[in-house]
Amino acid sequence: MRRQLPLVVALTAAATIVFGCASPGSSTAPTTAGGTTGPTTAAEATVIPGGLLDKIKKAGKIVVSTDPAYPPQSEQVNGVFQGFDIDVATEVAKRLGVTVEWQTPEWTAITAGSWGGRWDMSVGSMTITPDRAKVLDFSPPYYYTPAQMAASTHSGVTTIDGLTGKTVCAGEGTTYYQWLTGTLDFGPGGKPAPPPAGITATTLPSDRDCAVQWQQGRFDFDGWLSSITTVEGAIKDGLPLVKVGDPVYLEPLAIAVDKSGPNDADFIAWLKPTIEAMRADGTLKAFSQKWFKADFTTSTQ
To answer: What is the mean pLDDT of residues 48-62?
Structure first.
């Protein structure tokens, strides 16, 4: 379940369009064994007329959905977006030679697909799962985070076994909720170990809402499951919780694109080597160290 999931993109009826010089942030993807260097600049990309890449280039911007309250991955502070996912999305736009416009829809609307052209891609730490892959196309994982259990200091729970028979909170539509209910599946990556017996799952609109509710005096649930980066960020911010046990699984997180939108084969074909180039040249690692103080950009941790 730790390995990268495959992504195959077929290009048909494509025409090559040259958009001029590559942006200053462009880089060249590494050559893979038996293959050739993939396109990582707009000038090199093969564009499908009317496709997603064509749409983005003509607009001169890429519309990105993200979470305004999910630090350190993403948050909006005094009207400005910041965080790991924000840096990743901004770098993708830079290498494409366009600007970013942010949208902040509910997470369940993003994972459901059928975006109706309201945004072009999601850079929101989305785990690749078979159900999501039915409606969304994915980049290679740009990082891998451990899923970490936590408990409120009010509960007195200090071990995962201590959550047996308790209620645990997770964000709506998240893989954390799926794991708590025993339904999480990474497809070819397999299934993680099951949760402790007797746990009851509950949800709030966003992951961090669980910890915020403890801060506000709500204690009808004792546990919380989220990314270790989000849990540690909440502890750093003084929210009343403690980490409980070791991480329960590692999840592959990727950029997502709506299958029901404009033909995305050209964009995915450009995005895949771009993400690998950002990994190879150290860009992703630098962002990870900046926001998480650790390198989460490989599947071996």
So the answer is: 96
Please state, in angstroms and rounded to a whole number, the distance separating the CA atoms of residues 159 and 150: 9
pLDDT of residue 51: 96
- Model confidence over 246-272: pLDDT tens digits? 999 888 899 999 999 999 999 999 999
Please answer whether residues 257 and 121 qualify as being in contact, where contact means their C-beta atoms are separated by less than 8 angstroms: yes
Determine contact, residues 125/253, Cβ cutoff 8 Å. yes
pTM, two decimals, is 0.74
Question: What is the rounded distance in angstroms from the CA atom of residue 155 to the CA atom of residue 97?
Answer: 50
Q: Is the peptide bond before 146 cis (omega within 30 degrees of 0)?
A: no
CB 96 within 8 A of CB 42: yes
pLDDT of res. 285: 97
Determine the residue type at 267: F
Core vs surface per residue 115-147: b (16+ CB within 10 A) or e: beeebbbbbbbbbbbeebeeebbbbbbbbbbbb
C-alpha–C-alpha distance, residues 235 and 293, integer Å: 15
Closest CA to 211 of 199, 225, 228: 225
Chain position carrying tokens 């409120």? 152
